[in-house]
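We treat protein structure as text, and this decision shapes the records that our systems exchange. Because each token names a local backbone shape, the row as a whole describes the fold. For reference, a complete record is included directly beneath this paragraph.
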Amino acid sequence: MKPFTTGCMRYDGENFTILDQTLLPHQETWLPCHTVNDLVVIIQRLAIRGAPAIGISASVLLGLLAKQGATQTALIEAADELRKARPTAVNLMNNIDQMKRAIIDGPLPDAVIAEAEKLLQEDIELCERMSTNGAALCQPGDKLLTHCNTGSLATAGLGTALGVISKAHQVHSNIFVWVDETRPLLQGGRLTAWECNNRHIPHKIICDNMAAMLMAKGDVSRIFVGSDRIAANGDFANKIGTYSLAVLAHYHKVPFYVVAPQTTVDPECASGDAIPIELRGEHEVKGVSGSFGECQWAPAQSEVFNPAFDVTPAKLVTGWVLDTGVFNQDDVKQPNWWLG
């Protein structure tokens, strides 16, 4: 594979490394990733996260394993193991399926390496098109709100929702961003704020439960969020708390947009009811840990319910911003609407 560098992954011709996002913003540590087990652990502890980035990381690893001489049988086994790493992010499944076709059709290793490089470049280009499409919806002076992290830490390119915000900042004047802290893992307060600082985007971090007050005061122009899976009817799964924002936006008549590549649409998933929701460990809710240390604030004997995602119904969405275009409520009632 050719060497490359993205916001969350690097390959220098010999070593594949991944930025440990659990340690940001205070510490930038790059983790070596040589084996399937390495990557599964990195994905499951959220050292890398974001549906597109997860899918690309798996594709790159398979390309590197092929380059190192792995057999077809070994590559298929590796692909199947990686596919199970996280259940909600459909990009991972899509990328693995494409990589498996390259593994089966051959020749090895060239076809597998070429497919991994193609998927990497494709994601960069998809991000650029999404960002341009979404930025066209913004106006000078807009006060935008976003949830979780959807920038170059979550993709191979500029990002999805944060890519839109970054592009809007480039082409419009006085763009301001409210950054939801995003409980329980603070991906907004830690990661989105870090990226906003790096891109010199004016912003303020807010607790998730402050968004309603800002909307009531008229201080939110529009909302952009990402997605880990979009159902065929437009329902979508995203980081827990997104549904709450959509309900609030609907009540306050604030435009609410979901931003994702068309590869995030799952044609086999008829509605949000069919999207699997990952449940995670209790430690994420009972306390916090990172480069700043560890703290547990909840009683040890208390039980926890910790879904990583929630599903927002299509009826609450103003528009779907994809690389193939911007789609409205009428559009998503059409077959294969996401293809443009």
In short: The chain has a mean pLDDT of 96.
